[in-house]
Amino acid sequence: MIMNKIVRWLRVHLLAALTATGLVGAAGGAVINDFTSWRNANRDFLKAQTEASLKADQDLIDILRKFSNKALGKETTTPDDLKTLQANIAKSYLVASALKDRIPSLKTDIDGYADALFALQKTAEKMTGPADAQAFVEAVSAFGDRRQTFQKRIAGVQTSWPL
Questions:
Q1: Cα separation of 120 and 145, whole Å?
Q2: Whose CA is closest to 149, among 116, 103, 121, 120?
Q3: pTM passes above 0.85
Q4: Phi/psi at 159 (nearest 5 deg)?
Q5: Most CB atoms within 10 A, among 3, 15, 17, 45?
Q6: DSSP code string of 74-141
Q7: Are 93 and 117 spatial neighbours (Cβ–Cβ below 8 Å)?
Q8: How far apart (Å, rounded) are the C-alpha atoms in residues 146 and 92?
Q9: Alpha carbon of 1 to those of 7, 8, 12, 53, 112: distances in Å?
Q10: 83 to 8, 79, 129: CA distances (angstroms)
Q11: Tens digits of pLDDT across the chain (163 residues)
Q12: What string of DSSP letters covers 25-86?
C-alpha cells in the first residue's frame, strides 16, 4: 500500500518535472533562436552600412582631390564639381545617420562627423583659390580625423558583444 502511494507520487511528480523541463527548454530555445536572428540581422545591417559608408567616403575623397588641387592653385572647379561635392557630402551624411538611428552609442561620433562634413561643404563653397584656402585645408583635416574616429568606432561596434 505504501509502495503504491510512493510509486503514484513519483509518477505524478516525475511527469510534472519532465513537462516543466520540456516547457522551459522550448522557451529557452525560442529565446536563443530569436536573439540569434536579431544578432545576425544587426551584423548584416552593420556590414552593409559600413560598406556603403566606405563607398560614400571614397566618392567624396575623389572629388575632394579636385578641390584640394584648387586650394593649391593647380586646378579650377566648376559648378558641377561643387554639386558633385554637395551630393557626396549628403550621401556620406545619410549613410552615417542611418547608423546613428540604429546604434545610439555612436551618436556623438556621428554628430562630430556630420559637423566635419558640413564644415567641409561650407569652406569648399567659399573657397576661390589658394588665397582663401586655409579654412578649406583645416576642414579637410578635421574631416579626416572625424572620419577615422568614426570608422574605428564602427569597427569596435562590429566586434563587440552582443553584435
A1: 12
A2: 116
A3: no
A4: -100, 5
A5: 45
A6: S----HHHHHHHHHHHHHHHHHHHHHHHH-GGGHHHHHHHHHHHHHHHHHHHH--SGGG-HHHHHHHH
A7: yes
A8: 13
A9: 10, 11, 17, 77, 80
A10: 84, 6, 18
A11: 777 787 787 777 777 777 778 777 777 776 677 778 887 887 888 888 888 888 988 999 999 999 999 999 999 999 999 999 999 999 999 988 888 887 888 889 989 999 999 999 999 999 998 999 999 999 999 999 999 998 888 888 777 766 5
A12: HHHHHHHHHHHHHHHHHHHHHHHHHHHHHHHHHHHHHHHHHHHHHHHHTS----HHHHHHHH
Query: All 3 cell numbers of residue 106?
Result: 555612436
* Cell numbers found for residue 148: 577615422
- Tell me the three cell numbers of residue 134: 586655409
Pair 127, 136: CB distance under 8 Å: yes
Amino acid 37 reads S
State how far the Cα of 92 lies from the Cα of 13, in Å rounded to an integer.
63
**Residue 76, φ and ψ in degrees, nearest 5:** -115, 160
The enclosing H or E element of 157 equals helix 134-158
